[in-house]
Request: fold
Amino acid sequence: MAHHRNQPLELAAAPELDDDGHAPRTGNLWTCVAHIITAVIGCGVLALSWSVAQLGWVGGPVAMVCFALVTYISAFLLSHCYRSPDLEKRQRNYTYMDAVRTHLGKKHTWLCGLLQYLNLYGTAVAYTITTATCLRAIKKANCYHDEGHDAPCGSHGERFYMLLFGAAQLLLSFIPNFHSMAWLSVVAAIMSFTYASIGLGLGLAKTIENETIKGNIAGVPMSTPMQKVWRVAQAIGDIAFAYPYTIVLLEIQDTLKSPPPESETMQKGNVISVLATTFFYLCVGCFGYAAFGNAAPGNLLTGFGFYEPYWLIDFANACIVLHLLGGYQMFSQQIFSFADRCFAANFPNSAFVNKFYAVKVPGLPVSYKLNLQRLCFRTAYVASTTGLALLFPYFNEVLGVLGALIFWPLVIYLPVEMYCIERQILPWTGKWVALQAFSAVCFVVGTFAFVGSVEGVVRKRLG
Reply:
């Protein structure tokens, strides 16, 4: 009897949970917009003025607006897939892979997982290249300031900085829960906004100083038409890298409270975020091209279109390095977690995989729990990303390959297929034909960008 008397009190004290038994979600429109903009604006923004220079004054802005439209359509389709098509349960899909598994089955989930992890791995390589370029730029900026703009401030040292970044990442890889520390996302967001804004401000200042708008309709002239075609493909790949946030869209949607329905808040968030990002991107890309014309550097802050104020260039590059130090971990820890789960599932009795050893580290108040499988896998992972960066240290081309690689399958094809199942759109109806045509056009664009970017990497490597 006493148990029954106490039960209502216990229920009254329990916090109200969401329909899936999780703690109540508190996200709203503005947290949604903040998350999206943080996910979108990264080192890809630094390549935009170079992309506009390859495409020219008409092609560059038009390409950015087209990618903004495609990103919005993709986000619109995917945001409807947060709840599964089972009308009785309406279960939530917490991640992109959950949604693919629910709507399209096992084979598509494998494809999605492979491409997602390949993209995360490739981004880690790109971050290693970018960091080394930025550290070298800080050294060169100081040298130019001290010895004059014509001084032979050598471009060597990039390999050393890549190895330094790899060593730092190896250390960070073993800090428990480093990637889930709340402050890391905040720091990354502030840093990315800071350096992108400095790039925009310097481009605008340089344009005003020149008292003319440089550039032309056709963009950078090349010695043969084929070379121009490859350059255009690389530029499109770079823009594709800068825009989509499909991979993290459902995770962001999973933070939103309801009512109103999560998809409704997400739609508004998509509109505001894509408009804000596109305005920002157009400003960075176009002011960079207006300032430098066809000589626009591959990376706006490291290509030495700007020499002064040298301390501002140093500060902007330092912001990029800080952003990428944390960003590398935010991407790579997903691969580490996946590897840990796979090893534990396949080798449940292995001491190498499952045993933790207490190691006393000088300066730490508690013993560090060392696991041999994690030590080996993470060391090999960081070593391989550093090795690939040393082998292919080509900022624009590598970004182009990464952007084009996932553009059609993850950003277009899977969201289109899931939306058709979610909304029960029958084949050969008007809506189905329109969506398939959209997918087909994007497939052609993505393939063109991928082939051109790979050609660029191979040509530079062999050259």
Remarks:
- The mean pLDDT is 89.
